[in-house]
Amino acid sequence: MVLKTFGWSFAITVLGLAAAVVYGGWEAFGVVAILCVLEISLSFDNAVVNAGILKKMNAFWQKIFLTIGVLIAVFGMRLVFPVVIVAVSAKIGPIEAVNLALNDADRYQELVTDAHPSIAAFGGMFLLMIFLDFIFEDRDIQWLRWIERPLAKLGKVDMLSVCIALIILLITAMTFATQAHQHGGAHVDKAQTVLISGIAGLITYLVVGGLSGYFENKLEEEEEREHEAEEAAKRSGKKVSAVQLAGKAAFFMFLYLEVLDASFSFDGVIGAFAITNDIVLMALGLGVGAMYVRSLTVYLVREGTLDDYVYLEHGAHYAIGALAVVLMVTIQYEIPEIVTGGIGVALIGLSFWSSVRRNKALAAAGGESDSSDDKTGVPSGV
User: Fold this and answer.
1) Considering Cα of 279, then 280, then 281, then 282, what sign does the dihedral take?
2) Nearest in space to 195 (alpha carbons), one of 163, 162, 160, 168
3) Transmembrane segments in this chain: where (predicted)?
4) Nearest to 198 by CA among 161, 172, 180
5) Is 70 exceeded by the pLDDT of residue 297?
6) For labeling, which of 84, 129, 279, 334 is most exposed (least CB within 10 Å)?
7) Any idea where the domains of the chain sit in the sequence?
8) pLDDT at 248 over 50
9) In whole angstroms, what is the distance from residue 172 CA to residue 198 CA?
């Protein structure tokens, strides 16, 4: 079952890592491996959410999502989107950006370095909003209770996450401008770039979230209409066109899933810039990682159950928060790639270990439900 589901992912992993060694040696191998782990860890909750929706769709629409959806997710968001970011930030054409990445690495690196403040500000704000909206939400299951409980209470204040994100952006831009002034004012314009790019990242997050919410509402409306139509048909003795209703509902499911998947993929793509600026390594690592996410979605659907490691979602979002901070800091200071990638892997590993401890404690206590987890003394985290 595992080999059948993950077979293509395993094969692409071998090809991707081999291509990395040929392209840049063992250092490139390590970067691609880190990016792959990063993409999988940040998108794990994406696979869980996708599986929960995908299992409601018929076989035809499942195949559409896992074929056309893969093309959109892997080649569109993970491969094309990084090129677009560099092209827009450096004010060059996408084809020129690809040509530079492949044929003139020094010039490409120079353009990316010049564009890094805007990329970091945009990505940092987007990732920060994902983390803040997660941490301010009241949840039945909490990992680090001493942090999450008080923050969940604060989260009842409307637009708190937006206010905090804007404050952090202003502090970052002002700090950048102050340090630039102390060095002769050569980079004052970049402070304005940081501010504008950060606001653009915030707006992008709000737009993507709004679209996801829109399609989710449409999905709920279609499901309600389908249920009402079936009830009316039963009362009147008429037959219902199940294919039409299922297709209509599945169509909105597909649209919702694609928007949702795009919103999840932003963190992996943008977070990759904190690991490397090399577009080839980025494409290899994120492409391999995205394949595993899709395989994991299929595996969860075929098994009929969602994953039992409930704290992995928490660990992934803490990793997103750490990446947001790293990106904002790298506007002015250089941070080694191994440190950036190591933080995310460590947080995911810790959340996995906490989940294992929780499962063992629940089993020892007689299998209390999740709702009683935070009330019975069963460990809810570390």
Assistant:
1) positive
2) 168
3) 7-26, 32-53, 65-90, 118-136, 157-176, 196-215, 240-257, 269-293, 314-332, 338-356
4) 172
5) yes
6) 334
7) 1-362
8) yes
9) 10
Query: What is the per-residue pLDDT across 331-344, written as a single tens digit (0 to 9) for each?
Result: 877 776 667 667 77
**CA pair distance 226, 230, nearest whole angstrom:** 6
Query: 367 φ, ψ to 5°?
Result: 75, 45
For the chain, what is the mean pLDDT?
A: 75
With left for phi above 0 and alpha for psi between -120 and 50, is residue 116 left, alpha or beta? alpha
| Of the candidates 283, 348, 295, 338, the residue with the CA atom closest to the CA atom of residue 75 | 283
Please state whether 104 falls in left (phi above 0), alpha (psi between -120 and 50) or beta.
Answer: beta
Residue pair 31/284 in contact by the 8 Å Cβ criterion: no
d(CA 153, CA 213): 23
Report the predicted TM-score, pTM, of the whole model to 2 decimal places.
0.68
The answer, yes or no, to whether residue 116 has pLDDT greater than 60, is yes
Q: Which two three-digit tokens encode residue 155?
A: 């989260």
Q: Is residue 65 within 8 Å of residue 57, measured between CB atoms?
A: yes
Distance (Å, rounded) from C-alpha 296 to C-alpha 319?
A: 20
What's the pLDDT score for residue 176? 72
Tokens for 284, please give them: 């290899």
Question: Which are the contacts of 149, defined by CB distance < 8 A and separation ≥ 6?
Answer: 142
* C-alpha span between 371 and 213 (Å, rounded): 26
Q: What is the pLDDT of residue 54?
A: 75
Residue 167, pLDDT score: 92
**Cβ-based neighbour number of residue 379 at 10 Å:** 13
Q: Is 36 left (phi over 0), alpha (psi -120 to 50) or beta?
A: alpha
* Torsion of the alpha carbons at 382, 356, 50 and 150, rounded to the nearest 10: -20
Sign of CA pseudo-dihedral 307, 313, 314, 318: positive
First to last CA, the chain: 33
Which stretches of the chain are DSSP H helices? 2-42, 44-54, 59-70, 81-90, 94-103, 105-135, 145-154, 160-182, 188-236, 242-272, 279-303, 312-329, 337-364
Confidence bin at 244 (pLDDT 50/70/90): very low
DSSP 184: T
What is the model's pLDDT at position 374?
46
